[in-house]
Amino acid sequence: MKTKRIIVLALLLFFVAVFLHAQNKVPYSIRGDISNTLSSSMKRFEGMFTNKSEKEVESFTIVFFVFDQDGNSPLRGRNNVVIRIDESVPADSILSFSQALDDFFYTTDDSNTFEDEIEYECEYLYVSRISYSDGSEWTDPFGFEYF
After folding, report:
1. How far apart are CA 20 and CA 122, in angstroms?
2. Are 137 and 147 in contact, with CB atoms under 8 Å apart?
3. Is the pTM for the entire model greater than 0.85?
């Protein structure tokens, strides 16, 4: 019985160490959410990207999935959003950004307005590609490194 506990504890410590090591290797952090603009019912992604590397970022590509409160995707075609952000981010710096989502969402009528009362959730947000000013790139096409 005591041997089982030691083995379980050793495995737990191993997985925690691997997780923490992987988190330290990821060259960014990102957070964001979908919001309405104040002037219309247009949806926008409001985000904050942190460059945790020692190199200047030239551009990065974000990926996230969108669902309504019933778990349905309101997006045209695919159920995820892929957006390239062409902004320079110095080493160890933060960039706040905003991106319109009009081209991704279904609309409720011919005027291309969205239903204001529907809350949309952004899930599984990650960066799939980072291009650096020195010409190098970091990629994680499925978001495995971050999560």
Report:
1. 25
2. no
3. no
